[in-house]
Structure formats: C-alpha cells, structure tokens
Amino acid sequence: MKKSKGTSLTLVDFGLGPYVHGTPSKRFPVYTRGNVGEVYPEVVFPFSASISTLISSDPAVEALEQTGILTKRENQENADVHMGAFGGYSYVNLSVSRIIAVRTPGVTVEEADATFLGSEGLAPPHVRQRGDRNLRASLRGMLYGLKVLSGKQLPDLEKEQQVARGWQKDLPKIADATNQQLLAVFVEAVPLMGRLFRNHLLITGGAGAGLSLLKISCEKRLNDHTLALTLLSGIGEVDSALPALALWELSRMVRESEELTGLFDQGLDGLNVRLLVESSEVLFAQRFREFLMRFGSRGPNEWEVACEVWGTNPQMPLAIIDRMRHAENDRAPVLKTEKLAQNREAAVSRVHAKFGPLGRWNFDRAHRCAMSYSQARERSKTVLVEIVHDCRLALRELGRRIALEGGGQADDLWYVLLEEFEDYQNDPVSMVEK
C-alpha cells in the first residue's frame, strides 16, 4: 500500500499491481458505477488522481452545499463521500442520491436508483438511518429547486467559456515549453477545472430535477413516465451532437469519392498515413484536420487525461467514418433530429391536452428547465474536456521527453503520483522499477 502525503489518495495492490483506492463513506455506504461507468469506463490513473492534492475543497461538496439538501456535517466526513475511486475505478455515491430523494417531496428512493441504474430494484435496499429525514434540509432543497425551475441558478456559461478561453490563450506552445512549463499547464488547470466541475454538477442536478418533474407529470396524467425522455429529444443546440454531424459530412465525402472509398476499403491500419500521402482529395484532408482541431478532445475516455482521444489517435474517428460511409443518405443525423423534434412537439401537445391552465404552466416550467439545463450540461462538459485535452497534450509531450532523456516509456508518467514527479523526472527507470 502506498499513500500520498497529506491526502486520502492511496494506492492499493490487490494482486495485480497498485490501483487508486479511496476512503468510502460510513454515513453513505452504497456506491455505484451507474452513469459514471459510461463516462469514465477505464481505471483512474495515479497521476490523474493526484488532482485531489491540488484543490482545497471537493467540487461535489461545494455543489451540494449550495443546494442545501445535505447538512454541513454530512458533507464534512473525512472520506470520498460523493465520488471516489475504489479498486482503480470511479464510483458515484448512491446513498447520497437516496437521501436527497427522501428529503425531496414527490421523489422516491426507487426513482433515484433508476436514474443511475436504468431501472428500479437493482441495488441493495436502502437501510434507513436516523437523520435521513431533515425538515430544514428539505426546505432548503425545495427553495433551491424553485430557483432552478425559474432558471435563476443556471450558471453563466458564456462567462465560463471566456475564462476557459483566456486560460487556453495563455498556454505556452508545447514544442517551445520547458518541462516545468508543461507540468504547470496541468497544475494550474486543476483549480479552474474544480470550479467548472462544481458548476457542471449543479447543472447536471438541474437537468435531473427538470426530468424528474416531467416524469411525475407524465405518470400522473398519462400513466407513462417514459414519455419524459421523448419530451427532451431533438431539442437542438446540444454540443454532444455536433461531432456526429461533422463525422456524417466526412462520411458523405468518402461515399461520393472512388479514391477515398478505395483507401478506406484497404482497412483502418495505416489509413491516416494513406490519406495524407496517397490521396489527392485535398479537401477531405483539410476538413478532417479541421475536425480534429475542433473535436480532438472527444473520445470514449475523454475525462481521463491519460487516455487516447480523437486528437491523439485519429484512427478512432476514422473508424466511425468507416462505419458511417456505408449508411444511406436517409440515415443522416439531422433527419433523425428533425424526427425526434417532431415527436417532442407531438408529446408536448399530448400532455398539454391533459392539463388545465395552471397544470400547463407548471409543466411548461419544468419542461423549459429540463431542456435548458440539458443543453447547458453538454456545453459545460465540452468546456471541461477541452481543458482536460490541453493538459493531456502537454503531459504527453512531457512524458515523451522524460522517456527520451532518461529511459522508460512515455506513458510511465501516468503511473506516478504528482508528489513523486521530481524523483521520476530525475530517474524515470528506477522510479518505474519500484
């Protein structure tokens, strides 16, 4: 077992080597991989986990304190209460969401479980404890919820983006930066990411609150809570949909070009090189470079700084283009979005028909909340993963240089705790052998 000085960050060897292993909560003992397993499927690398040593507070604690739904005492437990890495993998606390449900009128523990697990009855039953119900916390949470519904709690995303862009503008050129400057990109980004992640959690909570209210309305009036998802489909202006649109356009270029089709037909291995060296389709190469510049931060493990993304491994998006090129034009994402939007409008009309004036007003308020927070959640995530990517590029170059100068592999850096970096930089081979 190896423990980071002054933090709760611990590496534990379960027989397969050391993995990041945090401290679970005693008050809130049930954790889940639900949701977090989709956005953080791989293990948390030690270097990435060192983020906790660089911020003075937990973004999740700050977010929940702002809502008022948990007490300060509950938030101050010396443990990884809300999120943590155990056995190397990220988990989110299910018990906390259950307590929030208990303290929120109209919401059940089973419904809270389904948010993370996809359906009810899959998790261990909730064991009630003294203090689960707290009238003051419920009132604070209800007051915050009313502000969310009004839109007054939606963080200023434009301001967030300006701050992030300002930070990115001041970044050194990777090729010209010293090793210390490359490390500083990561170190100086962490406090900024902490603030943005706190807001991201609040936005995500707002989207969840709006969705929960929609489910309640649909269940009571139409006996169909699943209709709530239709009410949020095809809403447009969602950042996560933009890469798919760009990839589709690139796939059409391949489909319409005999030369590009031939290069893709040869297989994915070496495709990126063939496109650069053998292809006369200059426009495709230009558009693909532009795609990587704009969406290079995206990928299946975009939250983990140590993992490959589209910008570091172009074969990933090329594989998607390769699959898309076989689809007929009537499978275009924009056509699907238009269809979903039509279904959404029809669902809104269907729900409106079941309500009187006051009911429609409440429904519309919940619907606007869910839509605006859903859009904001994706925008907030985009800002965050772009900062993660800037750190990724700087640290990959740093790892490459250390390996070139002192031996070892470029990716050895990811297995070092931040506090061990100086020793690793001075003697990377000996450090890795430990």
Order of strands side by side in the largest beta sheet?
1-2-3
Assign a percent range to the helix content. 55-70%
Uncertain residue segments: 1-7
The helix count comes to 19
Largest sheet: 3 strands, antiparallel
Report the order of strands and helices: EEEEHHHHEEHHHHHHHHHHHHHHH
DSSP, total strands? 6
Structural class: mainly alpha
Spatial separation of the terminal alpha carbons: 12 Å
Q: Strand percentage, roughly?
A: under 5%
Mean pLDDT: 90
Q: What global shape is seen?
A: globular
Rg, alpha carbons: 24 Å
Strand-helix topology:
Layout: E1 2-3, E2 10-13, E3 18-20, E4 31-32, H1 36-39, H2 46-49, H3 59-67, H4 72-75, E5 83-86, E6 89-93, H5 94-102, H6 109-117, H7 135-150, H8 157-169, H9 179-222, H10 227-230, H11 242-255, H12 258-265, H13 271-277, H14 282-295, H15 315-324, H16 333-352, H17 357-406, H18 421-426, H19 428-433
Antiparallel strand pairs: 1-2, 2-3, 4-6, 5-6
Helix pairs in contact: 3-9, 5-6, 8-17, 9-17, 11-14, 11-15
Description:
The N terminus is likely disordered. This protein is mainly α. The two termini are 12 Å apart. Strands 1-2-3 form a three-stranded antiparallel β-sheet, with no helix packed on it. A three-stranded antiparallel β-sheet has the order 4-6-5.
Quick structural summary:
The chain is mostly helical. The protein has helices at 36-39, 46-49, 59-67, 72-75, 94-102, 109-117, 135-150, 157-169, 179-222, 227-230, 242-255, 258-265, 271-277, 282-295, 315-324, 333-352, 357-406, 421-426, 428-433, and strands at residues 2-3, 10-13, 18-20, 31-32, 83-86, 89-93.
